[in-house]
């Protein structure tokens, strides 16, 4: 089977840590405003969460839980808003190491002249350093689970798993599977030789990694291998599908890639038949509007997809852009954005029974956002405060599997200074190996 792009990834969901440890301590988190995103979408003022081991044992008013659990250790979260841990449905951990190195070109130049060239010169140590940098950033901004969708063999998949394991984050980790080395059969968009994999390395390597990591980590790894794929990202995608008498979704359907276990990324260039077919399939979308806006690739028809009942998770942000292009300020309310960033993402990953909302029996994955600062006050609607006022820098506490990973806005499982310094060194080494060390400058002279 020929793939449209070299970007089909099979996934194994890794729930760290691989090391079997004692259950996290029992803790009662109190005095917060809690946005549960549960079935009733209730918001609890003066709320509390009782955590026992890896799971939520109780959620309710602080006074009531204090009465039920009088001997429990408490952690006061006054002035904070608690939300379910954010779930990123699209992440390239390797590219964090390349921050600021390929700004302002269109997609073909961005890929072929910079990004693929740099990534084609990665070592396994670079992949590990990039993963740690990405994970540290995600945790500090409230992301507790992410989908890595295109991890190449040369980056060292074991290192990625190790970074997930050590940090405590949840990671749905996808290795690249490819059988062609150019984009949509366009020879002008050739992949760097350092990234080209044969089918044995791609597919058999993926299965090998799945066999190694699936079922590990104290049985906190999801069974089964879903699929994620970049699709309908640029006009060239649609042109390619048309050249073989298909639309994006009819092609995916014809090769068995349009299922409830598929996460399709970007999905910008669709027609009405695509939306209808996608809706009927139960497939999911990872929406990344900032990425596509920066590369001028187009804008996903998110309101139309929502109306069709398609489940949409977030890779980046969503709220402001769609209000502007639809000329409808009600198009994507704050509550919808929170759903996409939490429970919708969980559904896309098949994890909605475990994460994505706050309720009894769910995994204890949540984030406390400090809204006491001058830039976040006053607020009346907590959902609005989180979506439109908070930036990620207000994240104060992050808990995953009942374990506190961020406290007082500081990483507890990673040495942030070491992560940054290692990333800086590795980044410069990648530039040098790629021969691009002297091209990483802006348009203005630097003395």
Automatic annotation (TrEMBL):
Q: PANTHER family, from UniProt?
A: AMIDOHYDROLASE-RELATED DOMAIN-CONTAINING PROTEIN, AMINOHYDROLASE SSNA-RELATED
Q: Which organism is it from?
A: Penicillium alfredii
Q: What is this protein called?
A: Amidohydrolase-related domain-containing protein
Q: Where is the Amidohydrolase-related domain?
A: 81-404
User: Which superkingdom is the protein from?
Assistant: Eukaryota
Output the Pfam families linked to this UniProt entry.
Amidohydro_1
Which key words are in the record? Hydrolase
Q: List, in alphabetical order, the Gene Ontology terms for molecular function in this entry.
A: hydrolase activity, acting on carbon-nitrogen (but not peptide) bonds
